[in-house]
């Protein structure tokens, strides 16, 4: 097989060059390319290309030069429609794709209420309130892990703890050490939290009583192998690899109007004051992540930004491509931190402001999944033969020629990208958290 020379003077095999080219294509095109030959099918399904494609996509979406950032949102045009859609931020804001649901037509007698829990590395977690329309006091929730780009979706096994009349706080994150996606459930202080591993396909009780619970209905931000939420007593962090909670992390300023975000690849909190209807936002960056290791280190913060955005701030979603801050002010508002200018986003869509996540298209497989069918033309999307454990194993091996494609470059969000919503305050939420289905 012939070789070419790259810009660094290295000699590349034709297969390497093919991977370099294919990794720049969108997922839909790559799925079509699988039909070219058995060789291409095998190559596109390989862990090497999957990782290379993901790394390139996340690096591009996090770049300051990126002019287009994709968001996944939940629509609510009417009572029957709580489907999902991709919305692209850029010079011309546009609804780029309607995604329907993570389950197929006929799986439920009618479309039940569905809610976004999180989106990491292009993999989406959705909760579905199954018996909502029957007005029962007991809530049954189905949880799906879904790749909208490949239409692979997995119904997570039922969790061990029944909600009963209580509502659960849910979080979805990525463990970069074990290359595993996980779902976390928190009911109350007097029950053990639970964590689900996609690789192991099981729920496990975390047999530690929590001193705090999430103030809102989501454990909302994934960064550096942790899930973060604002609790009643401070910030909470969940170590996705060790599967332990660290509670009562002190905040720079105590405010109910606080969200955790990624600021230039550092853990940050954004504080605003919705009750006073002011236009000022303050951003603080965590100085050292030692406080996340559970060793009794006090958190220290540095104020990085004080921003007068010029409009009333209802909610802050996070920073979506290093320099643009997305917030709600009646409608969606995008503020450029470098240029210090903002603009309203042109959209006729109606979607839940508390269910907006950054989205990166990916080829990552969902082990144990099935293909979702919402149309008659189930075409090119056959189930992937690659699984996460294959990708994980290859990511542990250093290539002899220092091939950068052998390691997953895992970026960060937005409040939501790493390989990273809100409800009304509840007077009695000190003892039980609110729920993704309690909108």
Give the CA-based shape. globular
| Binned strand content | 25-35%
Q: Please state how the strands of the largest beta sheet are arranged side by side.
A: 6-7-8-9-28
Secondary structure tally, helices:
5
Radius of gyration of CA atoms, rounded to a whole number: 21 Å
Q: How would a textbook summarize the main sheet? A: 5 strands, antiparallel
**Average of the residue pLDDT scores:** 76
State the share of residues found in helices, binned by percent. 10-25%
Strand element count: 28
> How many angstroms separate the termini?
59 Å
Stretches where pLDDT is under 50 for at least 5 consecutive residues are 376-385, 395-417, 420-439
The secondary-structure class comes to: mainly beta
Region (Disordered): 374-439
InterPro entries: F-box-assoc_dom_typ3 (IPR013187), F-box-assoc_interact_dom (IPR017451), F-box-like_dom_sf (IPR036047), F-box_dom (IPR001810), SCF_F-box_component (IPR050796)
Biased composition (Acidic residues): 376-392, 414-430
Pfam family, one: FBA_3
């Amino acid at each position: 097989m012939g070789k070419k020379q790259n810009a660094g003077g290295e000699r590349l095999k034709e297969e390497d060059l093919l991977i370099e080219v294919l990794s720049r294509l969108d997922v839909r095109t790559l799925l079509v390319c699988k039909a070219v030959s058995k060789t291409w099918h095998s190559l596109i399904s390989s862990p090497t290309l999957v990782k290379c494609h993901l790394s390139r996509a996340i690096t591009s979406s996090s770049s300051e030069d990126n002019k287009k950032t994709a968001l996944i949102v939940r629509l609510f045009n009417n009572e029957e429609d709580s489907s999902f859609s991709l919305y692209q931020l850029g010079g011309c804001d546009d609804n780029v794709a309607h995604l329907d649901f993570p389950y197929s037509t006929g799986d439920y007698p009618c479309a039940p209420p569905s809610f976004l829990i999180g989106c990491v590395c292009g993999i989406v977690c959705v909760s579905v309130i199954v018996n909502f329309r029957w007005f029962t006091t007991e809530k049954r929730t189905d949880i799906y892990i879904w790749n909208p780009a490949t239409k692979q979706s997995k119904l997570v096994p039922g969790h061990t703890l029944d909600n009963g009349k209580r509502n659960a706080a849910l979080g979805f994150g990525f463990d970069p050490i074990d290359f595993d996606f996980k779902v976390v459930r928190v009911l109350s202080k007097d029950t053990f939290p639970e964590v689900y591993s996609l690789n192991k396909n099981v729920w496990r009780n975390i047999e530690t009583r929590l001193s705090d619970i999430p103030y809102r209905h989501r454990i909302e931000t994934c960064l550096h192998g942790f899930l973060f939420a604002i609790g009643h007593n401070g910030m909470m962090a969940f170590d996705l690899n060790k599967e332990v909670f660290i509670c009562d992390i002190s905040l720079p300023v105590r405010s109910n109007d606080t969200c955790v975000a990624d600021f230039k690849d550092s853990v940050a909190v954004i504080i605003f004051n919705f009750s006073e209807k002011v236009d000022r936002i303050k951003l603080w960056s965590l100085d050292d992540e030692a406080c996340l290791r559970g060793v009794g280190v006090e958190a220290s913060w540095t104020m990085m930004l004080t921003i007068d955005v010029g409009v009333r701030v209802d909610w802050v979603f996070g920073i979506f491509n290093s320099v643009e801050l997305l917030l709600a002010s009646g409608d969606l508002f995008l503020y450029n931190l470098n240029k210090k200018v903002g603009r309203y986003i042109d959209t006729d869509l109606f979607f839940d402001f508390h269910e907006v996540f950054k989205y990166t298209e990916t080829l990552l497989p969902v082990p144990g999944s099935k293909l979702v069918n919402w149309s008659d033309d189930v075409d090119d999307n056959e189930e992937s033969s690659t699984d996460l454990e294959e990708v994980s194993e290859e990511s542990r091996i250093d290539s002899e020629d220092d091939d950068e494609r052998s390691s997953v470059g895992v970026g960060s969000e937005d409040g939501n990208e790493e390989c990273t919503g809100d409800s009304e305050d509840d007077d009695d939420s000190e003892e039980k958290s609110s729920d993704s289905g309690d909108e």
